[in-house]
Amino acid sequence: MLPVRYDSPAAVRQHGAVPAISLPPVTYGATAVRPGWADLPPGLRNALAARVGGPPTVRVAGGGFTDGFAAVLTGPAGDRVFVKAAALHRQRHLVDWYAREAVVLARLPAHLPVPRPRWALTDSGWYALALDAIDGHTPRLPWNPTELAAALATYADVAAALADPPAELVALGLPRLADLARDDILWWGEVAAGREPLPAAAADAPLAELVALESRLPGYADAASGLAHGDLRVDNLLLDADGRAWLCDWPWLCHGPAWFDLAGLLLTAYASGLDADAAFGGHPAAAGAPADALDVTLAALAGYFLTGAAAGPSNASPHLRSHQRWSGGQALGWLAARRGWPAPAPDDPGPTPSGTVAAADGRTPPPR
After folding, report:
1. Is 295 helix (H, G, I), strand (E, B) or coil?
2. What is the pLDDT of residues 238-254, one digit of tens each?
3. Alpha carbon of 215 to those of 9, 205, 238, 308: distances in Å?
4. Confidence class of residue 315 from pLDDT cuts 50, 70 and 90?
5. Which helix (H) or strand (E) holds 344?
6. Cβ-based burial of 147 (10 A; exposed 0-12, middle 13-18, buried ≥19)
7. What share of the chain is helix, strand, coil (3-state, %, to 5)?
8. What DSSP string describes 221-255?
9. For residue 293, is it left (φ>0), alpha (ψ between -120 and 50) or beta?
């Protein structure tokens, strides 16, 4: 399949009335607290070194919201791989995510710009997955309109390739976004019922409208025939030297509409003062979407992130909750601007949590 032509620079220019730019509390390249090479078991280090031809040069990834090992390993002969590794028992959820991602990546259409699996191994009670090491950088915030256009072009190709799901992916028994929404994403109804506290940012928001909007997501998602990445955000993208965007981190592939992914990515475009409404409406992934699909998605994401931010500290990343709070505030702010609601109330993030705590989440959106 040939890449989709997507040329719409106007879609990512600034508004006529530009809102204040908002940046995340911690840059996306510095959100993770990961083990270093020396923290891995000696047997695992030896096994990894053997696969790259000798003792490697190691560059640990600073981004992400998990505490698994993640680094580019460069062997003595220059062979480079990106390795994710986790303990089989203590970090079983990460092992499952990495193994699922390997299966998905191996079956995605060959023309898509995604890292492909090289090999996997188990040693010393750890699982390690090696992927292609993409030579690129995470897009910087606030977004450069040219870089955002590249990201949107890549996602146009991805959405087109997955609109009619390849049989080898369907055979994996992927989850459905509609079920994920019912089970884990929709939280305004819980707030309205008094089972979750009202986030401070939503103090002046019309709660009944938020409940009504988010409640439409499962039905809309069930009506979609394609597949969605499920976690499309700025730190799951890499821009190479040619300006092409690569889409990473694929364990959450699900049956669902591409416009859900698109809305999630564009939260940072809205926060960057760009015309996110035009970017959404002019993108191929939004073609045929329900008229209120963007508002429905923003309502769901706002509730999901804002209630998640109040869940207490996480051992996945000390910055996870503050990023959830910021992301939820952007979703609610964008929705309020679109619907003429009062701007969200400032939400005091409190001190950044640290130390080892009980929660074991890490996906953003994280499991609850």
Report:
1. helix
2. 999 999 999 999 999 99
3. 33, 16, 33, 18
4. confident
5. none
6. buried
7. 40, 15, 45
8. HHT--SEE-S---GGGEEEETTS-EEE---TT-EE
9. alpha
